[in-house]
Task: structure prediction
Amino acid sequence: TPNRLVLASVKDVPLDDVIAVHVAGHDLALYNVDGTFYASRDLCNHGNARLSDGFLDGDVIECPLHGGCFNVVSGEPCAAPVTHAMVTYSVAVVDDQVVLTAP
Ligand code: FES
Result:
């Protein structure tokens, strides 16, 4: 389908971990939360840090730089110093690949 962009193979995203994905000129963080996949913009919206370098604990990603965190499902911030939601993307698994679905 034209609106489908492959982010990764399912097997390339370790369980309960996060990887960086570069696709179509964008940097995304791709999360595997207990077998369900979520994606967000990789750059933290507080400063110059990549969330893919952070620590995924359940469905919360902790930024590696100042300890801010976001819920990867809703995008909502959950600890200072981050104050607003991160940009998230809808993904789906099709044929063992994690794909970006149309916004
Ligand atoms: Fe992420 Fe500051 S850069 S919390």
